[in-house]
Design goal:
His_kinase_dom; alpha/beta; transcription regulation; 23 helices; 606 residues; 5 domains; single chain; 14 strands; Heat Shock Protein 90; 14% strand; 5-stranded mixed sheet
Amino acid sequence: PGNYTFKVKGTNSSGQWSPQTIELPVYVQTAPYLTWWAYTLYALLSLTLFTLIFVLYIRKSRAKEALKIENIERVKSERLTQFKLQFFTNLSHELLTPLSILMVLAEKTMGQKGKITEEKKIFKRNIQKLDDHIKQMLNFRKAETGNMKVHTRRRNITEVLEEIGENHQLLAKEKSLIFRIDIESGITGYIDAEKLEICVDNLLSNAFKYTSPGDRVHLETHSTGYNGNRELVIKVSDTGKGIPEKDLKQIFNRYYRQTSIERNEEGLGIGLSLVQHLVALQKGTITVNSKVHSGACFVITLPVNKDQSERNPDQQIKRLIDQDRIEPVEENQLEDILVEIEYSGKRILVVEDNKDYLKLVETHLQGFYKVFTSTNGEEAFEIANREDIDLIVSDLRIPGMNGSDFCQAVKNHVNTSHIPFIIITANTEDQARIQGYGSGADSYFIKPLSLNVLVYRIESLLKKKEKIYNKFNKGQYLEPEKIVSTRIDEDFLEKAKQAVEDHMSETDFSVKKLCTEMGMSNSMFYRKIKGILNLTPNEFIKNIKLRRAAQLLEDKEIHISEVAYMTGFNDLSYFGVCFKKQYGISPSAYQKDNDTKSLKSDEPGR
């Protein structure tokens, strides 16, 4: 661009040029995209673009930072919630031990001779109420953390619900309520009875709470549908205070408590929330209809089909729970049973870190057994190895070595593996129960528990061992796995039996030689064989030899004196005395009896 001059000269045909020059001024303009205003525009556009990019970057950075802060806050909130729930659970667990103490004292108070006063009834009723609240909190914790599982099995639902209803009759009578139960007969199906009971208990407790003397509470149940679409419908209605419409939307919220109508009842505000959790867990629904001063009606609908139970893969828990289930015994029947139990001198080791509770358990058990106590696992394990303990009762949470590790140590040591083991704990989690059984426990109790029930269970386990003793001592053949429950004890019995059989005809085969074969000291072998079979080592050797003698006597061709010699008896009369003591008849009568049986079995038609 700029100013230019265009010059022109002319020429003729002869090639002569004109002396004059013609000049033409020319101006070339600047291209629009190169003008100053174009560059200004470029600068403005660049600035605008940079500003836009910067703004977007700032916004993105702020959004990213906000998201990061939100995540941090969410994590903090979750951790705080988990901390609260864990604290909540730990506190509940810690309360169960002192509650157990109060329950034992209440039992003793109620069991004392004399009139049961109203104060005693109030004392026991409030302990039971506290127990219910703690269990409700622990169940709520399970539901909140997703650790609660459904374990369904085929049940007579009518019987389950009738029992739940009957359990509330006394309370209805005390509150002067008209409690009506209408349950369809013959309802069967697949349910989780424990969770169903929690749901119905909470609804009935709620109904009783918000009703006054003379009001009506109605429990109604029926089934609907057919074949694969059967459902259980449970209605709990009352004619009490009712629920305002504005509260109905929040009634299932956790910690929500109705305050819009006059009420004096206490509560935790988690009952209905827990019910909703449990109903949803069982693939059911719950609805509520209510008006102020017209009562309320809660309706639960649950599927009761078999396929509902088949969706529960974790059947191990249910199997373990059923394994430890003992027949229910009424309190008065239990007291009658305990009266018949005499002091046996059996040596029971009790391990508990709460000294007050330990003292109560010790005092209660001393009426039946010789009791050893300890407050930590390591000391308890030393006692179990040092003393001839017949049964161990241990809390799960003990210092030094927790109850599960203590149980495992007992079951894995040759000196103690035969000792029955009962675990007591405040932990209601299924996983804790699995852990307890996995360590080898024979029974499992959750606090609070009745000490009478504990004695009943101890007696059951000891009698189970007594039956095995009696069968073995009467000469019945039992495989090692039918006598003992651990692999260590199976191997021990098999090895001891084989050692005696390898020296069957030796008259001088002694306990000392047997202990050498077993690689054990005399005292260690004595304690072990006594703990498993309630026999001394000499009695064990004699028992095995007499079993072989009985087998040989089944052959009538073998003379009794030969049998005695073949089984290591050099005195025929002593052999006869020992044989009669074990089998109840003389060797000759035993041989004759078996010969008669053999002849009868050979008769035609037999």
